[in-house]
Amino acid sequence: MLKNGERIVITGVGLAAPNGNSLPEFRDNLLNKRARIENITLRYVGEVHAGVCHFDPLKYQNKRDVRTGTRAGSIAIFCANDAFADAGLSVTDGNRSRTGVYVGITEHGNVETENEIFNISQFKYDVKYWNHYHNPRTVANNPAGEVTVNMGITGPHYCLGAACAAGNAGIIQGVQQLLLGEVDTALAGGVSESIHTFGIFASFKSQGALALHSDPNKASRPFDKDRTGIVVSEGGCIYVLERLSDAKRRGAKIYAEIAGYAMNSDGTHFVLPNPERQAECMQKAIISAGILPEDIDLVNTHATGTKAGDIQECEALRKVFGTASKFPYINNTKGFIGHAMGAAGTLELAGNLPAFADNLLHPCMNIDSIDPECEMPNILLETVNPRAGVKYILNNSFGMLGINSVLIVKKFAD
Questions:
Q1: What is the pTM of this model?
Q2: What is the average per-residue pLDDT within 191-216?
Q3: Active-site annotation holder among 302, 314, 364, 374
């Protein structure tokens, strides 16, 4: 239960991932260890591994809207509409002004700016060929704003720039707005279009942090001793969040309840994570949920497949759970879909939500030989069914410039 006694629940899920465009498809691929990474050719960089979403943008948009909008906007629109439908909701005169849209992003506008500069370079940089939709396409609130325009929502909308902690941050913001009574329904989560910007790939490559493997489906290998770095992916996941009283009043199905959350900052480095602050963030989330570390059944890790990052998160996990009477199960989703940046946390949470109903915990992917420095109890190499059931899941998301977000969800019980 959250601080003011109000209970917030998840009543709808919409997602687009490299290995699935609905929760059932995504979940089935996780349980059965099906990764879906492919090779793409990127301007200036060449062939790279990437997680590509193959959803149908025309399900909710026309061709003109897709052309004038953004890829992140299309992903957000697809996810938000699917989430509303999954929750059994539609936008009406009675709820459009009381619905808020809160979308976490790693970055926005780079894709559009890079493409437009390349385009005018073909015309000797004559700016008369500059896209006149540039400003609305590159403003930071774009993906959330495109959702409101598409769905006719008139409540508040904005995006939260929180690097790779952004997916959790979007959910946390939606929870807070519901607790404040600012909205009655929140569309909250995260999106990313990062595979369409060469700058992200070039930067990771220059850092020696871009994954490389002869088989793209084996390139993303968090915790494995032979991991070589990050696979960049696009994707999105948006939830419908409601106060429990409202959800019960309309007879909504409930996936899970938000139990607790926390965000903090490392305050130490542009890129390298700080395990002390990561541990502190997890501890604060556990306290906010009013539980003990041993109550957590599963931790979905942020681990991206970088040498230092994986090790430091494991160090943080040992600080939090090492003295608990029970060490939680540990899984990871990036081995299946790569790193979906601003969408990572929210997608990774979605893949575990069905565990409250079926008591199945999906495994990690591509751990052939675990890095000794990442050794921990209960790292999942295969799907398991805990005999005691699943009650609490902790979801880690950490980002550059030392931003950390942790979300805890629990099995709903009336």
A1: 0.97
A2: 96
A3: 302
